[in-house]
């Protein structure tokens, strides 16, 4: 049980720490893309 718990608890931490910056980066790009689309549609 203890042998499986640390591995199970460590994996989410590593996975959560690594994608966090990437997720924020992708979210920023997505929001900017949506914003540009909205501005483009308003222009047209």
Give your account of this protein's structure.
This protein is mainly α and 44 residues long. It has helices at residues 4-17, 19-43. The longest helix is centred in the C-terminal third of the chain and has 25 residues, at 19-43. It is rod-shaped, with a radius of gyration of 19 Å. The termini are far apart. The model has no long low-confidence stretch (mean pLDDT 72).
The beta-strand count equals 0
Largest sheet: none
H and E order: HH
Low-pLDDT runs of 5+ residues are none
Q: Helical segment tally?
A: 2
Mean pLDDT: 72
Q: What gap, in angstroms, lies between the N and C termini?
A: 61 Å
CA-based shape: rod-shaped
Helix content: over 70%
- Supply the helix-strand structural class: mainly alpha
- Rounded to the nearest angstrom, the radius of gyration is 19 Å
- Estimate what percentage of residues fall within beta strands: under 5%
Describe this protein with a few key phrases:
about 45 residues; mainly alpha
Provide a quick synopsis of the model.
By secondary structure, the protein is mainly α. The chain is 89% helix and 0% strand.
Q: What is this structure's SSE topology?
A:
Layout (H helix, E strand, L loop, with lengths): L3 H14 L1 H25 L1
């Amino acid at each position: 049980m203890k042998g499986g718990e640390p591995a199970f608890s460590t994996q989410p931490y590593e996975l959560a720490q690594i994608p966090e910056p990437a997720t924020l980066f992708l979210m920023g790009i997505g929001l900017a893309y949506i914003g540009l689309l909205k501005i483009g549609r308003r222009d047209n």
